[in-house]
Amino acid sequence: MKRKWLFTFFALLLVMALALSACQNNENANNAGDNNAGENDGGNNTGEDTGEDTGGDEDTGGEDTGEPKVVTIAWTQEPDSLNRYYTNMWYSAVLLDLNMCAPWIYDDNNEAFPYMLTELPTISEDGLVITMNLRDDLTWSDGEALTADDFVFTVDMILDPNNVVDSTYPYDMLDNYEAVDDYTFVMTLSEPLSSWFSAFAFYPMPEHILGPVYEADGSIQDAEWNLAPTVGCGPFVFEEWETGSYISYVRNENFWGDAALLDKVVFLIVPDDAAQTAAVLAGDADIAFWPPYDDIPRFQDAGLDVITQASGYNEGWFFNMREMASPAIKDLKFRQALAMSIDREKLANDLRLGVVKPNNTMWDALPAYVSPDIVPWPYDPTAAMALLDEAGYIDLDGDGYRDYEDGSPLTISLGSTTKEVRVSLQAVVQQMLKEVGINLEIVATDSLFDSFADGGPAAVGDLDIMEWSDAPYFPDPDTDYWWCEYIPSDEYPDGYNWFVCDEYLDGLFKAQLAETDPAKRIEIFHEITLYMHENVYYLGIWEDPDIWIVNPRLSNYLFSGITPFFNIGVWDVE
User: Fold this and answer.
1) pLDDT digits over 361-380, tens only?
2) Cα separation, 162 vs 219, whole angstroms
3) Alpha-carbon distance 182 to 500, whole Å?
4) pLDDT tens across 14-62, in order?
5) Using an 8 Å Cβ cutoff, are 270 and 279 in contact?
6) Residue 569 binned pLDDT confidence (cut-offs 50, 70, 90)
7) Would you give the distance in Å from CA 481 to the centre of its chain?
């Protein structure tokens, strides 16, 4: 836990510094030797010049040893898109570290450093004008120059209504954006945005590839590049996607930085946790992500390295209180009773081997932003039953489950993905709630995150409670999940506030965005976190750091909790 607090402290300092200063000097871009591999528990990490040295002028890769250097990574969820702006899946977004590039990325301490830029971006004293100074040697993998015009094109595509992207935020807060010259991109906000540094998770798209598609079709919505981005700007280039089998990347021979040491990286798509564990133990995969905690002793016994990396994520319950939700779930007393009916300590100990502890908010990884007045919901089934009785939820027909006052049966639904640990948790929680007389219907589905237009059960409101692991715009605390205008509808099918429109909460989230004083912003988040906790708009289940299992034949590897594969260009194998 001490290490996690340190990560959070560093991240908080970064955000505060950016908010108070009009410019940020880069002092770390080439200080990779400061990275401490021991903090990341990387068994064969050398810690030598591997952290931030992901781009440069020297070609050190591609040494011919006779055998191709290939790393295989087991991947338990198949991406839905390889275009960052058409996905909200973590398993899709993080692949961009391989074949795409961002102006700045984050190291194993979750600290930002310039990647495509000569220095971290600057912001004017009034908090409105953001300036990015690009390197002058950037190229796409086909040899075309990568310039500020590609940045302009990308924002054009994000904001064009013919491109139904996952979210237009925060680009829809721009008054203007322009390429001042080939290597200077400037964005002007309509009003100060305190979370700008984290919110603009920018990955430019190649105008020379997608521009003609847009001119021909009026949209890039169905561009082949979204699923087969054969032109990119990262240390690797996309090679092939065999649906249900694998996604492969090969070294980018035109990379503007140091050539990657590996020849190829393969993401082996496996159907479930058991298949992932089997693949790594058998040597068919070198790396696994987020395995069942029960399997960790097996990995350790096999001599594999277990890496824990703070990521800002927490497993939690999100409550649907829209019109179509069950009447009980919209009742505060019922939600409070529900919170006291769940033994979260037991869940963490039994299903996570006590490695993690329950979280109280979605911001627990950023403790400075969490109200000190929050009192964790205790496990108290007796108090829960008394509260349910007081609210009028009584078992009227003697079947062991509570009913509404009119005699109709009270049933609530909990939906999540098919990930095995969640399925196990659902079964345990179902029994816990049965003990206080609550009938819980459990739903495990691979379509949980489907959009409103596609009939996703969370989006359309078929579920009362939804469970997944999520984070704010870490390392910034901002999130727009609870903005009222993002409630999905026929008119706005891509809305992702699947929870509640609370005008007071909506106002708080928008107030913190406009607050440039870090201390005052923290005060607003104290109010947000306490308000959400007391109203049980979110119930934490457990902390969810990234866990990586790594074959010791790998060296030089480090992971970030924000851009996980930030230094994959210097990974090597025996």
Assistant:
1) 999 988 889 999 999 999 99
2) 6
3) 44
4) 333 333 333 333 333 333 333 333 333 333 333 333 334 443 334 444 4
5) yes
6) very high
7) 13
The H or E element containing residue 547 is strand 546-550
Model pLDDT for residues 514-534, shown as the tens digit of each residue: 887 888 999 999 999 999 999
In this predicted structure, which of 116-120, 158-162, 234-238, 353-357 has the lowest mean pLDDT?
353-357
Task: Give dist(CA 116, CA 97) in Å, integer.
Answer: 13
The reply to whether the predicted model has a pTM over 0.85 is no
For residues 204 and 207, give the distance between their C-alpha atoms in angstroms, rounded to a whole number: 9
Using CA of residue 541, residue 347, residue 560, residue 269, what is the dihedral sign? Answer: negative
d(CA 23, CA 77): 39
- What would you report as the CA-atom Rg of the chain, rounded to the nearest whole angstrom? 24
Q: How many CB atoms lie within 10 A of CB 110?
A: 23
CB-CB contact of 426 with 433 (8 Å): no
DSSP for 66-123? SS--EEEEEESS--S-SSGGG---HHHHTTHHHH---SEEE-TTS-EEESSBSS--EE
Report the mean per-residue pLDDT for the chain: 89
Please report how the helices 148-159 and 207-217 are oriented relative to each other, as an axis angle in degrees rounded to 10: 30
Question: Are residues 280 and 299 in contact, defined by beta-carbon separation less than 8 angstroms?
Answer: yes
Among candidate residues 565, 563, 549, 574, the one with its CA nearest the CA of residue 74:
549
